[in-house]
């Protein structure tokens, strides 16, 4: 089970990084969203993986670690805010310059 | 008066000049003067206690954990300097009142001056070296403002910059030195450090600490090789030069050497560094001063020279050296400040400070000439003036000092320096005031009004009094010297007197004065020879070094930060992966290792879905709409994963955030191109893929390791689980953590969210009010629009759904404390319900029916959360402490009311407002002028009989 989660995080990270290194704003934003998933799952997993023991107090004896959940919950909401800000900046740049490259156009890297 | 008040007065008073500025120059200067005088009187009120041998201290805890406390101490040394600072400050303010012209902003000037004064007083009264450092840096900053006061002069700006660079760097070095010293002594309090002479001098870190502290002192007191900034700082108005660059700030370094003298001096390192630097500075400054034509430059270099003299005396490490140094500090402050003020008067009246254009002024301005002559003769070391006595004592001290070569070397060098010192003093007098009256002065020189010559006149009176009757100040000098010596040596039994008999120092003095006169007579030839000699120009070297570093910094920046985001991303990923790899290879994870849990079919299924969607996304990301759909799938799987691994709250949050994120991205995609063009070369892609895979492997390995290892430290979660119900009154531990245990965190987070939404709103406004607006209005959609913009089915459906979703939202909110749910999730759900109305019936229709602006809702949310927190104060608890109780209204079941609910309501409102404001802002971009807003919820309404509105865009 741990392997599944770890590899899922790895794949999300790799995909996120690859997309974050693209040349246009939109894939970069998508890449950053994937990285957000990866980071959130990672934080969540740091409390350990437990099936069927939500941290809702009842007659049960074991509960999963509630703290990472609380941290990730706000992280998810905040990451929405962050994505929205990045998107509006990207949008403003594109509408202002009719160009959605992330790199400076003066660069002679041959990518632009 | 309390020490704190003495230090604080100038800072508080710094507000006065600005306020009084509009009330006239007299009021402005008067206010400043009153502040300084009050502080001075406060200082004097402490003198009786000092005389009784007491050391007055005052202590306030500030940051005790860092050892940084406001501890003030007044001993004779501190009082001596504080009296110099405040006393000469008083005179300078009177002088400055008349010196500044009507075009100068007097309020600004006096504000800076008081800030500087406060910082200086702070230095000399600090008992805590960290506090001292704070004041030390403040003097650098305030002197920067004062030097650059005439902002229109390039020399002023350059001089200010140079002074700040040099003294600032010295200050940085000194911070390091002080830290080391504090570590050795185990305390940052001077009173403790000064008791630890043995421990400090035997420490291995003594030499680094000494060098770092001396760097600070030498830069501040313009000692060789850092002497070059002082003459350039003379671009400041003359009151500043007189105050900062002769009497006070440049003596801060000297003060610190004196303050630290008991613990730092007496070692060979101290002796060689300090004495050598002092001696070189003294001679070099004196020689250069003779050949300067600018009166203030001459005085600047002479100040450098005299500071060198004092430094050298402190360096010798003997009690007599200290006594002489203290005496010379006093003498130098009196005659040099008077000289600077006289030079300022000459400049003010004759409109030039160039000594070659002056001469014969004694006929035109006799008072000024008399003042300047007395002060300069004192500087030259002529009997009956105070400079003579301390200079002779200095010469006597050099006889006992042996540095490097034979024992006559130091006395010879000192006499040589004194000779030049006499020569430039004579030149100052003769070339400015003597000789025939000229008819080509740029101005019309005459004596200024009383206000301007009062201050220097008072100072030269002191010069004469001390010179004739040195025994008057003997108790003072001895008490201060005793404070410097700090009990290491006894104060020498020496009497300050004019006549000590025919002894070597007298002969040396005579040689110096006679030589000075001869040198003056030969000045023309000497000057020509000097001008012909090539010399390194400090300013050029300094600028060269600065240019070199600026160029280097620019190069590094340009290489690393070349505008290619892609590169930063790659460099960042590689660096993090490499660091993590290093930790992985070398670190010791330790701890218990768990057995992996068995895989389940459900989990495997989810994994396959996630991996498939992710890989598909990577390969298909060019089609942006497909990419969004795949993102949605990934988000859904993640949310199901949360649910599977016992995190129902996270699952609900993730799925609702997913919905609003996708809506947001769709809105953005409306404007962005639909396709990402293929631009990267195959090699480039491969490189990116390698970086990405490395990063992914690292993340996977880290997670796997983390999941199978045990906690390094015990988790605090046990506490949360145990106290959630008892202390917070809720069974949903995650929610209790959010609104109670870590409520302050959450409070910050909803504020951040609100700010993010406001940023989006502001950016949108900017876009809509800029050139982009026209483009947006004239935009032709690249795809055919739907014929029916507001489909009947959708409108009807969302209308029916609305109350249902709202009810769900309320339900989720209410149960949040005990069951999965809460403000965050409820807020997101309600936001989705509202967004659906926008989607179905259009922006105009929906916003017409929106009664409260979203900004307000965000604000109300933050306010509600904050007020709930403050409510705890009224029950005597700390901010955000929650309280709860159980109630029963008869027909219903028992229910709970917790103050946390008010907080959660704040979270709810802030989330609704933030999400809606973001989405609304995006959709505002899409409104186009030539599409009429529909008054109806749907375009085709079977119940409406009239013509359907124009359906443009279908074509």
UniProtKB/TrEMBL annotation, chain A:
InterPro entries: CPA3_antiporter_subunitC (IPR050601), NUOK/Mnh_C1-like (IPR039428). Keywords: Cell membrane, Membrane, Transmembrane, Transmembrane helix. It is a multi-pass membrane protein. GO terms for cellular component: plasma membrane. It comes from the Bacteria. This is Multisubunit potassium/proton antiporter, PhaC subunit. It is found in: Cell membrane. Gene3D superfamilies: 1.10.287.3510. The keyword DNA-binding does not apply. The chain crosses the membrane at residues 26-49, 70-95. Its main location: membrane. The keyword Metal-binding does not apply. Belongs to the CPA3 antiporters (TC 2.A.63) subunit C family.
UniProtKB/TrEMBL annotation, chain B:
GO terms for cellular component: plasma membrane. GO terms for molecular function: antiporter activity. It is found in: Cell membrane; Membrane. Keywords: Antiport, Cell membrane, Ion transport, Membrane, Transmembrane, Transmembrane helix, Transport. The keyword Membrane applies. It is a multi-pass membrane protein. Pfam families: MbhD, MbhE, MnhB, Proton_antipo_M, Proton_antipo_N. Residues 794-916 form the Na+/H+ antiporter MnhB subunit-related protein domain. This is Multisubunit potassium/proton antiporter, PhaA subunit (TC 2.A.63.1.1)/multisubunit potassium/proton antiporter, PhaB subunit (TC 2.A.63.1.1). It comes from Thalassococcus halodurans.
